[in-house]
Amino acid sequence: MKQMMTVDQLIQHMNKKGIKFELCTEEEAKVFLKETMYYFKVAAYRQLYPKILEGNRKGQYQKLDFAYLKELYNIDASIRNMIRDMCLDIETQIKVKLINSTTQNENEDGYSLVKNYLTSEDKNFHTLKNIQQHKSGEYCRNLIKKYYPFFPIWVLVELISFGTLLHICQYY
Fold first, then answer.
1. How many helices (H) and strands (E) does the chain have?
2. Structural contact between residues 64 and 46, judged by C-beta atoms closer than 8 angstroms
């Protein structure tokens, strides 16, 4: 079992692994590990760097400075944020298309789709059970209180998961 380490001990551990603190000082690394990102996540990036195969430094990393690990974290965080933003935009567009499609459908009142979905596709009412779990949330509370269990589609899309949204779209 691995022993839990303080930030100072982690710096010592990285020194033993051959990670340098030339472009990023040990003090800067400590601040980063205390305020920005935890060691286990940052340490995962070191696997991208080769190790020394022979000699008294065998097993240590070659030419790896902590600054490189910080930069990889920053790149990774930027990509994750970009993907998250894209996913949110996609989710919003799916909701817009679903709501527009139902409002333009003469046979739909916005409520029947939800009722039919819940009774034919969601027989165990997982959707309603999941919504009930969020009834204390600041954003959801009033919507749930006002409409439960007879939600129109334009309210339901604000209360469900992305997976449920896709399932309703597929059903519709």
1. 9, 2
2. yes
**What is the rounded distance in angstroms from the CA atom of residue 95 to the CA atom of residue 106?**
19
β-strand pairing of 64-65 with 19-20: parallel
Q: What are the structure tokens assigned to 158, written together?
A: 């604000």
Report whether 73 contacts 24 (CB < 8 A).
no
CA distance 144 to 139: 10
Higher pLDDT, 133 or 108: 108
This prediction's pTM = 0.73
Q: Where are the alpha helices (DSSP H) in 121-172?
A: 126-133, 141-147, 153-156, 162-171
- Other Cβ atoms less than 10 A from the Cβ of 7: the count is 16
Contact 118, 125 (CB under 8 A): yes
Read off the pLDDT of each residue in 100-118 and give the average, rounded to a whole number: 94
